């Protein structure tokens, strides 16, 4: 295991604004140091900056010289507790990269440290290959800040960590040109005018952010119990994260720690919702907080929310509000009692989770009709067909007889023809292939349909069919007649005409992009909010290889009249996949599904790796692949958009098909 370099910054006293002094920030970093030293096994080197020591240059220098020591296998951790602020975005870069129209900054004792400058510093700390993590306990820290709000008798005092921007607010020159995303959410630098391949992977973020609140919220401190039972002032998020880290088993991922800390904050403080970035599966969030290899994440987690036990998926993920939806955890079943937009309220059945614990869960029953699979096979493959039918009993799939009422009524019909050769065909209702023929493993010489080969083929085919069903569930998401529908629209413009009108769909409802070989189209894509208030948006891109991802726009709040730009305004190069030769008549289809909501959503269920039948043949799927596809392995008025317990979050979806054709 590598070394851990920790920079802990706690600021209680602000000399120029004594009315804004805080009480819990130094307690936060002291508690963080204790638990980090407890879990690090002597691998940690800590540097602390308190109060008047924590000037902008001192913090910047400590990031460069202390955290910058982290090399490959090491971890660099910044834990900041103090005030923060926000100010109107002004520079061209800020106006593109700040969808809310506001920029954020940490409040050091001598002035603000803009998020873009801090982000560049953290990028520099990651340059030697270290695992870089930032924990920010301040308002707007999904972008960074604490404010006093004394409660009535019987309620604990709550104070927000916020300072309004003063005359020394950061000037545009404080923000380096390059690549900062709101809330110190950085991605690798991109050359000006660089063009990114829509078919390729998204740029990998360089550091992980665990923020105390959303980009549009303030975060709080209050009296909270310590390990010895005495109550002292702490930031609600720092206290929750330290508590989760203290109780967590070895190897727990940052995503799992964050899930418990977020739930604890929501149980404690109304109107404060911590934020994790980036959320991409298998990325920084799925590594242990203090370093280590990434784990496969569970798309769904069971946790204890303010209304009891909940799973972080709901109607916006394709669940129904009807009775019959269930999940399963390693310890037992979990039954759904109410499906909300962003989460489901549940009751563990026959077992009692430890209070405050987090559990991966899988979808085990769905109160919606599954896809119907009709299998046809010659007599020689009857055993293979029977084995496959047994594998298809899942929440997403059911076998059906050809011509049966179940097959006719199914929202999605998959016709599987095992044939007699070395390929299986997956056909639509009208007989058109869904995917390229699926190669079957060669049986042992003289032993056709040996059990081992039949089981391997059945596993591969079952995973393929489940992926098709899941892909259609994502593409066909609908909130019906939502009041949010139409408030945000997806706009695609040719890159050489950025000020021109957006491209309009043709008579078939598709955006058609045309190019000749060597002259593929470059486009700019933005999400524009014409509504009266900020809305959270994510753009789910689906392709005709049955892959899905939120890499284009992973999820952020867009302010009223504001725009969120795909890849922070870089152009998107629309190309054919490598397996599709560029010749006249060749084309590729994409679907851009815009998810709009009043609050953040779990986006992990919207990720599917494009289906590759040849790769599936070369490597047998893991035993739990089908399970993972269908659900995963085993106090003051500070926020105008806050959602109180029981208040439903409204949401909407819009899908825009795009077809790119070679002339």
The helix fraction, in percent, is 10-25%
The secondary-structure class comes to: alpha+beta
How would a textbook summarize the main sheet? Answer: 6 strands, mixed
N-C termini distance? 54 Å
Q: What is the average per-residue confidence, as pLDDT, rounded to a whole number? A: 83
Oligomer: single chain
CATH structural architecture of the largest domain: 3-Layer(aba) Sandwich
Total number of helices: 11
Number of strands: 36
The CATH class of the largest domain: Alpha Beta
Low-confidence stretches are 143-156, 167-196, 631-646
| Total individual domains | 4
Walk me through this protein's architecture.
By secondary structure, the chain is of the alpha+beta class. The chain has 4 domains: 4-286, Rossmann fold, CATH 3.40.50.1460; 300-365; 371-475, Double Stranded RNA Binding Domain, CATH 3.30.160; 488-599 and 641-662, Immunoglobulins (Immunoglobulin-like, Sandwich), CATH 2.60.40. 18% of the residues lie in helices and 30% in strands. It contains 11 helices and 36 strands. Strands 2-1-3-7-13-16 form a 6-stranded mixed β-sheet, with helices on both faces. It has a 6-stranded antiparallel beta barrel with strand order 17-18-21-20-19-22. Strands 12, 28, 30, 33 and 34 form a 5-stranded mixed β-sheet that branches. Strand 31 (535-543) and strand 32 form a beta hairpin. Helix 2 (56-65) runs parallel beside helix 4 (115-125). It is globular. The N and C termini lie far apart (54 Å). The relative contact order is 0.11.
């Amino acid at each position: 295991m590598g070394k851990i370099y920790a920079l802990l910054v706690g600021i209680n006293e602000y000399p120029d604004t004594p009315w804004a002094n805080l009480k819990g920030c130094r307690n936060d970093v002291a508690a963080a140091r204790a638990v980090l030293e407890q879990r690090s096994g002597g691998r940690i080197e800590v540097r602390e900056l308190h109060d008047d020591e924590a000037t902008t240059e001192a913090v910047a220098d400590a990031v460069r010289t202390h955290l910058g020591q982290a090399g490959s296998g090491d971890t660099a951790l910044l834990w900041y507790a103090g005030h923060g602020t926000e100010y109107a975005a002004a520079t061209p870069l800020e106006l593109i990269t700040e969808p809310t129209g506001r920029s954020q900054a940490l409040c050091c004792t001598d002035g603000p440290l803009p998020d873009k400058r801090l982000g560049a510093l953290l990028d520099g700390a990651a340059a030697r290959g270290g695992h870089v993590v930032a924990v920010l306990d301040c308002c707007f820290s999904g972008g960074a800040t604490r404010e006093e709000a004394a409660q009535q008798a019987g309620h604990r005092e709550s104070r927000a960590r916020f300072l309004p921007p003063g005359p020394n607010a950061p000037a545009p020159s404080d923000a380096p040109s390059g690549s900062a995303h709101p809330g110190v959410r950085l991605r690798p630098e991109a050359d000006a005018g660089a063009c990114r391949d829509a078919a390729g992977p998204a740029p990998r973020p360089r550091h992980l952010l665990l923020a105390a609140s959303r980009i549009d919220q303030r975060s709080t401190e209050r009296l909270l119990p310590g390990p010895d039972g005495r109550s002292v002032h702490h930031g609600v998020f720092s206290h929750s994260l330290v508590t989760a880290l203290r109780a967590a088993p070895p190897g727990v991922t940052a995503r799992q720690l964050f899930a418990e800390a977020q739930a604890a904050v929501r149980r404690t403080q109304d109107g404060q919702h911590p934020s994790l970035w980036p959320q991409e599966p298998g990325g920084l969030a799925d590594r242990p907080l203090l370093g280590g290899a990434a784990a496969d994440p569970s798309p769904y987690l069971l946790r204890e929310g303010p209304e009891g036990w909940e799973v972080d998926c709901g109607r916006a993920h394709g669940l129904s509000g009807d009775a019959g939806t269930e999940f399963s955890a390693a310890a037992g079943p979990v039954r759904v009692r109410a499906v909300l937009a962003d989460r489901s309220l549940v009751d563990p059945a026959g077992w009692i989770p430890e209070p405050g614990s987090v559990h991966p869960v899988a979808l085990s029953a769905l109160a919606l009709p599954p896809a119907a699979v009709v299998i046809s096979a010659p007599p020689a493959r009857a055993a293979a067909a029977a084995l496959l039918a047994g594998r298809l009993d899942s929440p997403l799939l059911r076998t059906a007889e050809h011509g049966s009422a179940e097959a006719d009524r199914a929202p999605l019909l998959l016709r599987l023809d095992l044939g007699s050769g070395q390929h299986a065909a997956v056909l639509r209702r009208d007989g058109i292939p869904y995917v390229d023929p699926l190669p079957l493993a060669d049986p042992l010489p003289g032993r056709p349909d040996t059990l081992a080969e039949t089981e391997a083929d059945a596993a591969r085919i079952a995973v393929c069919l489940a992926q098709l069903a899941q892909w259609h569930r994502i593409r066909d998401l609908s909130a019906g007649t939502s009041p949010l529908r139409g408030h945000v629209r997806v706009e695609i413009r040719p890159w050489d005409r950025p000020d021109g009108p957006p491209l309009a769909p043709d008579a078939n409802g598709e955006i058609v992009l045309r190019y000749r070989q060597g002259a593929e189209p470059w486009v700019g894509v933005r999400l524009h909010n014409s509504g009266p208030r900020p809305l959270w948006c994510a753009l789910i891109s689906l392709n005709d290889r049955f892959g899905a991802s939120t890499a284009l726009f992973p999820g952020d709040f867009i302010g009223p009249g504001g725009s969120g730009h795909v890849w922070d305004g870089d152009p998107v190069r629309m190309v054919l996949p490598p397996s599709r030769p560029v010749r006249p008549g060749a084309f590729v289809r994409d679907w851009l599904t815009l998810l709009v909501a009043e609050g953040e959503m779990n986006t992990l269920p919207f990720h599917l790796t494009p289906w590759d039948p040849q790769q599936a043949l070369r490597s047998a799927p893991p035993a739990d692949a089908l399970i993972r596809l269908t659900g995963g392995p085993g106090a003051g008025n500070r926020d105008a958009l806050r959602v109180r317990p029981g208040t439903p979050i409204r949401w909407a979806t819009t899908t825009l098909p795009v077809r790119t054709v070679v002339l």
